[in-house]
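Anyone able to model this chain together with adenosine-5'-diphosphate?
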Amino acid sequence: METTEEEFRNSWESFITAYYQDGFDRVVMCYPEQRSLEIDYWDLDRFDPELGDDLLKDPDRVVPIAEAVLRSLSPGDEEIGLRIINVPEKVPIREIRSSHIGRLISVEGLVKRCTDVRPKVKTALFRCDSCTEPIRVEQEGLSFREPVICPSCNSNRKGGFTFLPNDSIFSDFQKLEIQENPEELRGGEQPQTLAIHVEGDLTGSIWPGDRVVANGVLHTKQRIFGTTKLREFNIFMDCISIRPEEREYEELSITDEDVERIIELSEDKSIMEIIIASISPTIYGMREEKEGLAIQLFGGVPKRMPDGTRIRGDVHILIVGDPGTAKSQMLMYMGELAPRGIYTSGRGSSAAGLTAAAVKDEFGEGRWSLEAGALVLGDKGLVCVDEIDKMKPEDRSAMHEAMEQQRVSIAKAGITATLPARCAMLGAANPKYGRFDPDVPISEQINLPPTLLSRFDLIMLIRDLPNKEADSLMAEHILKAHRLGEEMALGREVEGADSYTPQIDRELFKKYVAYAKKNHSPVLSKEAEEKLKNYYLDLRGRASADSPLPITARQLEAFVRISEASARMRLSDIVSEEDADRAIRLIEHSLRQIAMDKETGMFDIDIIATGTPHSQKSKMLKIRGIIKGREGEDSRGAPLDAILEECSKSGIDEEDVKALLAKMRDTGVIYSPQVGFYKMV
Ligand code: ADP
Ligand code: MG
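re: yes, here you go
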């Protein structure tokens, strides 16, 4: 039996008064700061399942009626909107089909992009040019509706009506684009997206990088090619309610049984080895690198200081390596293994690149919208950036803030926003000139400025050097992996697959990491603190005025983060001396590869921090002195011969002098007014 409109209104009215009288009164009292009533779908369902069903099936009819009821209940002329939450029809973005069009559904996703908030006309007022009578036209749908005929004088002259924007009623309007959450993607899939239109008090509350649950009605817009209307349609959601999601790791749903297994694992004496053996077992060797990656997964504890400063807990790692050393493979593996992992390339797959960008015309209307890049989308996760040296110039400057303060600020085209980017970053870079050259400082070999390099807690170098024994073991490992793969593809039982199988299966591993991060925030023990302090003071104490600076406070923070992560790996709440030892060992391993002064065998942090090793710096000072000393002798500057001669007296060889002169000229310390002559700038 069809319900009449009248009965339908009455049902809604009794529902509101029965369940939401208080809520409604509150909205009325706070109007216009609050201008909508939030209704839980399940209340409606409990009140009258048929009413709930109608709402799901035909929201375009039901919502205006319900809103009219709200208007009739309100004492004044308040336009109170209806916001429905907990819509039961949850549809993954990937599974949206034409059968969902016109229905009330719920989607979850990550906000990738949003436009600025703009007015949209709701009730347009026109003046008839013939009789000057006003005409009201209620606006619905996508295109602007103009009067066809004047109700007063029956004029139907085309263009005979003037739009009066100042007397029309507008509401706020914004477009968002959401994409599938990273953990719902199966390795390497491109996330699918959905456009969402929000209006009124929902605008301006959501930012790129937010995870949201959006409830709304799916509508279509016809695609147009030139002037031809196509049969194909685009879909978008007219939003009825949208909320940021606060869940973090619960999305993995860890059961009591899981917890039991996790705790049992954590008590194993060799848990560290088990964890390391669970990281990309197909990749041969790389013990230290894998240990670093394990540390990164767990991460240190972020801290908020009493003065409001925030110190990151996330560990950033850079892998620099010769081509074909499994860097990309390792990054992809980590992107899948980490809870909320993302794998991307430095070039970025979208306009937003790695950080964020204000982009024009992405929705096809010449408006600006703000788009989140990988580090924002990977908030609270691990972002693996392959070929990070190829990142866009716009990203380079934003990257400093993203890595240290873990946020991205943007101020462009009237859009100002600060988006959170609390992620750990795993980068991979190839040496600029093909292979790594141990005689050249790292900052000259990869296309990243020292200011960025020094923000990585660990930089690991993978060199591809021929070594008979290692080569043979690696070849055996790789060939055996291929054979196993082939046999498994044929459906055969295979022996020896164990060494290629992660010791902890991937699902449990993810849960282990999520559980550790959620439940354990280890604190430094007195012994661990002493150990780190002594190590730091000892190293710095060895430096004198004219020797290189071995280490800075940046590394001290890295020690703390790595020790904390190490304790977390075995679910400990206390950082032990052994954890501090591990941090020292890993950082030493990293510094030895990339920040060691060849001549003295001492660490020289300036190789990373400033890009100029101490040994080079003192030679540069010498050259500077020579050029300065000859100022005024010759208007062309100091001749190369004289510089070479004086330098050779100080034991600096010719090749070095020439390289340093070139470097000083490139960095703008000196210039060459004529070939073979140098002057101070
Ligand atoms: P990169 O990104 O460092 O240039 P890739 O990740 O593309 O290198 O690796 C090239 C190939 O070499 C991959 O198929 C990888 O499996 C193989 N490979 C390189 N090093 C190893 C290793 N140590 N163990 C197993 N396979 C390796
Ligand atoms: Mg690669």
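The chain has five domains: 5-85, 93-244, 256-468, 512-605, 614-680.
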